[in-house]
């Protein structure tokens, strides 16, 4: 008999569910069966009326997008000017780390991760269709329109 079995036996259903919840809350944002891809958490810092994202390079590398394009997205979502300076993003305004993480996560979900195969090996093409990008998945070949920004 191993220790893990003993633990499960003595837990009530409620405790066991709580334990499961905790395990899932620690999991990456995407479910593990789909991908082991982890969206980098935003490292941000508020100074005065500006917010700096210090790890924009890490985020853009992971997304395989130019930092400028992510800056443009953030600028649109937050409705403030955003500057890319010395490998950091400077946002005009005070934004919580939680809000920034939510927006970055949405960026990955819509513009990076293929909705067909859930892999992040994609790129965006801006074709003739105004207001739309085409997301092209290099892993499974899917391509579909996403709203441009
Ligand atoms: Zn795909």
TrEMBL record:
<dbReference type="GO" id="GO:0003743">
    <property type="term" value="F:translation initiation factor activity"/>
</dbReference>
<comment type="similarity">
    <text>Belongs to the eIF-2-beta/eIF-5 family.</text>
</comment>
<dbReference type="InterPro" id="IPR016189">
    <property type="entry name" value="Transl_init_fac_IF2/IF5_N"/>
</dbReference>
<keyword id="KW-0396">Initiation factor</keyword>
<protein>
    <submittedName>
        <fullName>Translation initiation factor IF2/IF5</fullName>
    </submittedName>
</protein>
<dbReference type="Pfam" id="PF01873">
    <property type="entry name" value="eIF-5_eIF-2B"/>
</dbReference>
<feature type="domain" description="Translation initiation factor IF2/IF5">
    <location>
        <begin position="34"/>
        <end position="143"/>
    </location>
</feature>
<keyword id="KW-0648">Protein biosynthesis</keyword>
<dbReference type="InterPro" id="IPR045196">
    <property type="entry name" value="IF2/IF5"/>
</dbReference>
<dbReference type="InterPro" id="IPR016190">
    <property type="entry name" value="Transl_init_fac_IF2/IF5_Zn-bd"/>
</dbReference>
<dbReference type="InterPro" id="IPR002735">
    <property type="entry name" value="Transl_init_fac_IF2/IF5_dom"/>
</dbReference>
């Amino acid at each position: 008999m191993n220790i893990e079995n003993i633990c499960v036996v003595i837990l009530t259903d409620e405790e066991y569910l709580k334990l499961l919840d905790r395990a899932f809350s620690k999991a990456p944002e995407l479910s593990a069966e789909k991908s082991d891809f982890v969206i980098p958490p935003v490292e941000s810092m508020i100074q005065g009326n500006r917010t700096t994202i210090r790890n924009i390079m890490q985020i853009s590398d992971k997304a395989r997008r130019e930092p400028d394009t992510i800056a443009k997205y953030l600028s649109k979502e937050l409705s403030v000017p955003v500057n890319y300076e010395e490998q950091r993003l400077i946002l005009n305004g005070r934004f919580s780390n939680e809000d920034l993480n939510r927006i970055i996560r949405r960026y990955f979900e819509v513009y990076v991760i293929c909705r067909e195969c859930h892999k992040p090996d994609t790129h965006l093409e801006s074709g003739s269709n105004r207001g739309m990008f085409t997301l092209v998945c290099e892993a499974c070949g899917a391509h579909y329109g996403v709203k441009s920004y």
